[in-house]
Recover the amino acids of this structure.
């Protein structure tokens, strides 16, 4: 006579909803992860899917047959191997591919967008009882970014249309292409320009930082401290490298739109900024921070 636990195991696959082969694969993965058992796929094609345990002598088998419709398995025998014989290979939900397919993780990406971090995914999975390494979460996030946001390099082809839309909305922009290939771009946000005016005596800080994308590049930033004592960005630039030429181009675009002129500029005075401020902003005192 089967115990309640045996019956719940046997009914696991009957309770699942199947609309595609991927649903079947996920069900097998979830079952073996729950049971903490390793498994191997014996056959997988357009008409069938079969998996067994990797432990020698274990009776476990689950077999599906399908064509146009997808149903519970035609054959299922629960595991007969002892739990202590299992290995880490059973934890398939912890791989980057499976993490990326997790509805829970995908909902996180929808809610937070590009702000989602690998460590947040790892912590969320831990709460759900799933052990995943940090690097597998990194790989999962890369998969999701590629799927949802597309290739980083391909995004550059969309910049001209993005610039046109910003101009239509009242932002200030400039973009340079060389032979149809992106060279550099500058954007001054309308809200930043309007918010800056009452606080021009607080000066403007400028800085550059490397972009952590597959194509690299450098982000140039101009910002100030607003009425809430918060750092507010007034303009940004995307360039290939932080040097005197690009800083000159950036400030030549940015400064004319800051009215009244900032009381001073502050920076780390690195990579061309000292010479740039002398030629582009000679009337602006230039301080530096540590």
């Amino acid at each position: 006579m089967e115990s309640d636990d045996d019956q719940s195991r046997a009914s696991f696959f009957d309770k699942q909803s199947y609309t595609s082969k991927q649903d079947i694969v996920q069900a097998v993965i979830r079952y073996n992860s729950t049971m903490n058992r390793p498994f191997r796929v014996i056959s997988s094609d357009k008409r069938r899917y079969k998996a067994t345990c990797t432990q020698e002598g274990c009776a476990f088998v689950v077999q599906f047959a399908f064509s146009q419709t997808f149903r519970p398995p035609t054959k299922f025998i629960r595991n007969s191997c002892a739990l202590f014989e299992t290995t880490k290979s059973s934890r398939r939900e912890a791989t980057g591919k499976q993490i990326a397919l997790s509805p829970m993780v995908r909902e996180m990406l929808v809610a937070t967008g590009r702000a989602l971090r690998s460590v947040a995914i790892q912590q969320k999975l831990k709460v759900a009882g799933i052990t995943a390494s940090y690097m597998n979460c990194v790989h999962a996030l890369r998969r999701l970014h590629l799927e949802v946001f597309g290739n980083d390099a391909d995004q550059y082809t969309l910049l001209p249309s993005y610039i046109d839309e910003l101009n239509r909305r009242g932002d200030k922009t400039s973009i340079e292409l060389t032979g149809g290939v992106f060279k550099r771009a500058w954007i001054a946000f309308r809200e930043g320009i309007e918010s800056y005016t009452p606080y021009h005596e607080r000066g403007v800080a400028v800085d550059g930082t490397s972009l952590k994308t597959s194509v690299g590049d450098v982000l140039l930033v101009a910002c100030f401290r607003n009425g809430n004592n918060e750092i507010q960005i007034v303009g940004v630039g995307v360039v290939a490298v932080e040097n005197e030429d690009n800083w000159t181009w950036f400030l030549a675009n940015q400064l004319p739109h800051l009215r009244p002129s900032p009381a001073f500029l502050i920076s780390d005075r690195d990579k061309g900024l000292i010479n740039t401020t002398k030629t582009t902003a000679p009337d602006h005192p230039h301080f530096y921070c540590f």
The radius of gyration is 28 Å. Residues 134-149 form the longest helix (16 residues). The chain has three domains: 1-90, 93-150, 156-288.
